[in-house]
Amino acid sequence: MDSAEGGAADRTANSASARARRGALLSVIIPMHNEEAALGPLFARLDEVLPKDVAVEIVCVDDGSRDGTAAALAARAATDPRLRVLLLARNFGQEAALTAGLEAARGDMLVLLDADLQDPPELIGEFIALWEQGYDVVYGIRADRSRDGFFKRSTAGLFYRVFNALSDVPIPPDTGSFRLVDRRVVEALNGLPERTRFLRGLFTWVGFRQVGVPYVRPERVAGATSYGLGRMWRLAVDGLTSFTTAPLRIWTAVGLALAGLALLYAGYTVLRVLIHGREAPGWASLMVVMLFGFAVQMIAFGVLGEYVGRLYQEVKGRPIYLVREKIGFDR
Ligand code: UDP
Ligand code: MG
């Protein structure tokens, strides 16, 4: 466990006394997909609650919005020197937009924030205080999700349970992307070569000193969620396939179990013929066994396909995102 010891040594070197918000730069990274309606309330709130005793840059990543988000950001950047804007070439998805922001930001500590004010920016001060105490990752825990809707809550709950049962690196339940991360963690993350970026998993995988802060997740301030059923399913499958191969391996066990059952049934059939003589019926049981067998095979193929497809994505080596335009980075 060399790396763990190295981490421990780093920790003492970078303990409380070495970290102070004064003189440090805070990057607030905000991915945006069709968030025009949320921009007004968002910036008003940020102006109100962002800590005044630390230098701030706000990195807004427009993830191929179809509304006026990009134009509004460009206009705002012309008057707000804290603002840096990345316009992505198309919609690459939230994880890709966050990756773009993490690679472009220059802060000593970086905060990932949703544009819709579902991640209360008031907490950033508290996050920074914990960072000063030596924590490298301070993540928000959605303690109260009663505003999230029954369906979203139950599917999210199920996902975290399945994920943590299968994955080698369990992620704290009810976390999202909302967190503060030290520069060293971001460097480690930016160095990871994989293209499917399930960030809340990767942030756990890198380790370092982590702590959670519970908060009540409010409703979206304006606009509509980008996550329909299809996107939620894709994110869940991305997360699972990036962090566990258990869905692949399970079919060995299922196959063995079914083969065992088949053997038992074969023995029973032979015995029955020996005792009662040959008999014609059995169509129904045959159909059941066949249909069930086919279904199981289909599922196994489907799971295989998910992994092969992702292998293919990784091997092609296309970039995670493309930037169409950068605004405010020369300041
Ligand atoms: N987002 C993005 N690209 C996407 C989808 C979402 O950058 O393809 C951003 C979105 O603008 C918001 C954040 O990711 O700032 C969270 O998205 P949303 O609020 O739609 O998700 P929910 O809170 O409903 O899970
Ligand atoms: Mg939201």
UniProtKB/TrEMBL annotation:
UniProt topology in membrane: Multi-pass membrane protein
Domain Glycosyltransferase 2-like as annotated: residue spans: 27-188
Chief place where the protein resides: membrane
EC annotation from Swiss-Prot or TrEMBL: 2.4.-.-
Top-tier EC class: transferase
MF annotations from Gene Ontology: glycosyltransferase activity
Location in the cell: Membrane
Transmembrane segments: 250-271, 283-304
Keywords (A to Z) from UniProt: Glycosyltransferase, Membrane, Transferase, Transmembrane, Transmembrane helix
Name of the molecule in the record: Glycosyltransferase family 2 protein
